[in-house]
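Sequence in, structure out.
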Amino acid sequence: MFCAKCGKQLETDTQFCTGCETSIGNEFADEGSYLGSSETLTAVPTVVAITPGASKKNPAVPVGIFAAAAAVIIAAMIVFVIFLNPFSNNPIKNAQVDDVVNFGEVSFKGYWGNDFSEEVNWRVLAVEDNRVLVISEDIIDLRPFSEELEKAAWEQCDLRSWLNADFYNGLPNNMKWIAQISSVRNDEIQEYDLPSGTDTKDTVFLLSTDEAYEYFQNDNNRRARFFPTDDQAKRIFENRDFDIKDYLRDSDNYYYWWLRSPGNGSAYIAACVLEAGDVNVGGDGVNVYYGVRPALWLNR
């Protein structure tokens, strides 16, 4: 091959012209260009910026490559910081116990077929060095703990499956990015000597009876309201012949909500919190329709 600048014949594997020391890249003249080709080719020299320290063993790199790479990196950083950074909108960064925070809209298909798409407030129950425990301030839906009586243990109940699939998928991104997979303990209930099942790994879970006592100061602090939409109330009435709005008017919208612990000696019972806020360790049948208050550990 020949140098495109001076026309000197070169070895095929050389990187610099031995005549004019021009860097030889992919742009070189083939033999026909100088030795009788039917067309006369004008050799165009390759323009290369020689960086300090460039040599025949370490050829120079065009400056444009550095500029393009830097532009791509800067653009990616801007997109991450503005649109994707999970910590750019973290309401719990400086949260304290009993604070109420909001991450935005939560969306899911309700048990009664209604579409839920509303902002949800979350109450801070506990603050540790690098994480925060939150629970929904209000009841978000009425659902059975489990439709099958045989699936009364937390590890196998329908409610656990729904919380960690459909419900989790409907959380806002800035909440999902900081949600932890937590070790959920399921100890036996000493009062009835009843095992609660094996421990589980969950992102979303219900409180246990012990946690309901630990994280709330009193019964009044433990109470939770339910605000069904007209469509939701209509569907509940059509399916259960139960006027939920009429009931809630008398209770100032306070309602029962599930705990993950088993209830009394029956295998088909789960514990719950009553509308007055007291913990019902005895519980109720797992196939009744009580409120759901999801809980999560979140990274600070």
